[in-house]
Design brief:
The protein has one domain. 60% of the residues lie in helices and 0% in strands. It is built from 3 helices and no strands. Helix 1 (9-21) crosses helix 2 (26-42). The longest helix is centred in the middle third of the chain and has 17 residues, at 26-42.
C-alpha cells in the first residue's frame, strides 16, 4: 500500500541526485536509505560496507546467482 508523505525539499533533492548516480528513482533512493538506516539501527556494530555486502548477497541469492560451497578436496 503506497502512502503519501511530506518530506523537506532538501531531502528530496538530495535523494534525486543520489538516485541519478545509482540509477534509482527518487522514491527508490529514499526507500534504499530507509532500509539501510533500519538495518544499521537494528545492528549498530555493523559497518555500512558490511550492510551493503549483505544486501548484495541477499539479492544474488534471490536471483539464483550463487553456488553451493563444497568443503574438502576434490579428486
Amino acid at each position: 500500500m503506497a502512502t503519501t508523505i511530506k518530506l523537506p525539499d532538501d531531502i528530496v533533492n538530495e535523494a534525486k541526485r543520489y538516485g541519478a548516480v545509482y540509477s534509482r528513482s527518487t522514491p527508490k533512493q529514499i526507500e534504499y536509505w530507509v532500509n539501510i538506516g533500519k538495518i544499521a539501527e537494528e545492528n549498530p556494530d555493523l559497518p555500512y560496507s558490511f550492510i551493503k555486502e549483505i544486501l548484495l548477497a541477499k539479492a544474488e541469492l534471490e536471483d539464483s546467482q550463487v553456488t553451493t560451497y563444497e568443503f574438502g578436496e576434490k579428486s
